[in-house]
Structure prediction request, 514 residues.
Amino acid sequence: MRLPAKEKWLWLVPLIAVLLLWEFTAGYVIKNPLFLPRFSAVIFSIYVLREVLIPDILVSLLHFGIGLALAFAAALPLAIGMGWSRNIFKAIDPIIEILRPIPPLAWIPIAMIWFHLTHYAAGFIIFIGAFFPILIDSYTGFRDVPKVLVETGKVLGCIGNKKQIKYVAFPYALPSIATGTRVGMGVGWMCVVAAEMFGVSDSGLGYRLFQKFYFLHQMDYVVAYMLVLGLVALCLDHLFRHFVEDKLLKWKKGIVK
Amino acid sequence: MNHKLELRNVTKTFNTEGGEMEALEDINLEVKPNEFLCIIGPSGCGKTTLLRLIAGLDYPNSGEIILDGKEVIGPSPDRGMVFQEFSLFPWRTVLKNVEFGLEIKRVGDKARREIAEKYIELVGLKGFENCYPYELSGGMKQRVAIARALATEPAILLMDEPFGSVDAQTRNILQEELLEIWKRTKKTVLFVTHSVDEAVYLADRVAVMSARPGCLVKCLDIDIPRPRKRTSMEVNEFREKLLMLISLERSKACISV
Prediction:
């Protein structure tokens, strides 16, 4: 999307306003860094922490990567089956609907027993968080393939489930898979913090955030980690949109925008 | 007598919630090679069902459908089909849509492109090869659908009210173009419509159907030389004859209901 130069920077205005408001309120109204550290103090903390931050970001990204990759690998084949065949859907849907409402955090004790203090324990919690959004959006995509497209495929020689899925259903469902993955990434990233915080890990952003609070009550560090968590997620989302939505889903333009 | 397509005692019933519904009753029809046959009838008379049976998308309960001496047992690219609703694959460009059937057939890249370009030119869409369907008008979409159906070189072209969802002026132009394509490719065309004007303008022969259960009432040869003038005396006379026949059928159907 091309915007004129002026509109391109429009987003900066409210952002700077909010940051100034934060700085002013914290410094002159609340005047208690335990309650609300100043923005400048938080930035300074990020600067102080710059060297220890990187390994923690990498550990958190590792947990995230393990969880998301497994969730995607497990959800996609299941979504194809459930979306394409009514019988598979009827057979599996009840199990999915029983497991889905269980909060990912409720799996933490099981993760600790099964995987101990390994990266897989945190990865498992993220897997639980990301799996269901990816599955549900994806199977909806496969289920909603218009009949006329399947039949068009058939009269052009695209016969049999394997070919129909490959040439018709999969491309049709791709936007839904992308949406599910994006939602799954969001939920997964929230689980990163929780998983690491509750002791499934002895490093990572979430672990460090809670440690700073629990032992030191250093709120400027805590908020610094919060900001880093937000920024990393923002980068992940932008990367995803750049590589998947802009490149792969060009043809959706007419429908969405 | 050498027939391209032969329907012998074809019957089709659907199982609905209210019991069995007879859609087609004892249809007998012969189509000559290179013939342009229009099937006309009130909505709900089963003309689309008839076309779907020939395409192999549905199966008759009894009777036989024979194409080039072989019984039809399922969909195949030797019968090209153009649907009433827009049926382009939205994720494929015009070129890729036309190439679809050839891709399934595993025709090599270069040959595939050559064939596709030939048919894109035939339907007058040269220069639009790399457009996505969302960038095309309704008439253009149907032209791509025609090119795509022709690209696999089918023995017969089945068209199910293909111009039903385009505006009247575009429809006239598309009809002229279709006749031109038919003349050049020497295809056998089976064209379903509910428009008397369309049938009289296009067809060599028109088959009139009646509703519930759908059966063929009469076949009329239209021996008006081409190019036909839509407003000429002979065309008007024929139109009147056809309209009378159809309204007679409709009143009969009302009495029997």
